[in-house]
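FIELD: query
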Amino acid sequence: MKTKSLNRIILFVLLMSSVIIFSGCPYSSKYPISEPNSSVDKNYFGKWKQENSENLYYEVSKFSDLEYKIIEVSISVTDSSVSQTIYSGHITSIKDIIFLNIKDSENPDANYLLYKIDFMSDKEITLTGITDYIKKEFNSSEELKSYIEKNMYVDYFFQSENKYYKK
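FIELD: result
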């Protein structure tokens, strides 16, 4: 009887470990895919909530003509305290795929986090992180963009997607 319970616990731990490993953070780079070159779209300003998440949302507004200001608001489950992180972000298009480059705007040494973004409508988007299994070091945005362009249609290149809805 104890063996069955122990086996179930071990199986549960292994499954949860794999969930954590396979849903990690997206690839981060000291370079964006490109410098900002697309005007911000006011349709995406507002409050966005991740599907199935009540304690985390994002407020999107204009940072500059070419960059978004993205405020991540996290509400603690234990004591309802609120913490915020302010990011700047911009869009890069490569062929038929649109990417979001975001960076902690309060930390000058922060890396860019890179996501594929699908605009389902003005009220729904899907973000999919670029895999963090990339071990290659890039020396410029041009090198990074070239690498992404060559590999973005390969199955393993992206992590699982997250849906966000405008409130």
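FIELD: remark
The two ends are 50 Å apart (CA to CA).
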